[in-house]
Amino acid sequence: MTYSSELSKQECLRRLQAHTGRGPGLWNRWAEGTISAKVRGNRFRLFAWGPMNVQNSFAPLFYGRLDEASDGTHIRGRFRMHPVVQALLVLWFGGLVAMAALLVLLPASSWGSRVAPPAFSVLGPVVMILLGYGVVRLGRWFARGQVESIRAFLVRELTAHACNEGSPNPALQATAAPPSC
Length: 181
Prior knowledge:
alpha+beta; six-stranded antiparallel beta sheet; 5 helices; 38% helix; elongated
């Protein structure tokens, strides 16, 4: 996803820095829809706070980079979950798939009792996979609207407009790209 802003890179960084206040503590949470930023050099991460009573590790974050351009600044980035959450999900689902595969594929002689576990025992890992999928979907449901809040923040605070190059939406491809993209 690429945005273009007529502001200079330094002005964009200054405006992002204005949203890097200390994260809310246990008692002083930010209001729903508030955007917080973490800036390191020309890279940044944006997070839209959701409902105050929901801690959501599956909420999308916008990871972006500011690049100077002749006509202002290009903002390149994408929405994704935090890398630690992604790693934990890979471990969770990978471990469950490996467990189910071992239960199905190991011969009976590899089990101490010389009796293979019943095929019904594979149901445990399958149920845990479905529950994990359900928790991720529930987290995404709680995060509905946060992507739009971040996009609105980019338009409002950085006076950015979306570039439509490489857009999967044919209707957007049919329109002319803004000249600064």
